[in-house]
Amino acid sequence: xxxxxxxPAACSKSMSSRRALSSALRMTGLIPASKPRPKPCGATEERxxxxxxxxxxxxxxxxxLFLSPRTLxxxxxxxxxxxxGQPSANSSRR
Length: 94
What we know:
mainly alpha
């Protein structure tokens, strides 16, 4: 540490230059773009996720919520897509 005290104007210049550098690195692909935030689940998706997590089969969940199997699968796909740690649609696959 050099012991320098930065004035508020110097801090804001430093922060804006960091943002500019970070933005430039993202555009070149050296830093991956941040993953988009997942959309919050709807009430049906929450119920589907809850029943599926408690060990019910897809058929049981669909019957309990009066959903068709295809609708249930679509809801589960949205739930899985929003789980943390899932690859985003724009991430590169190797």
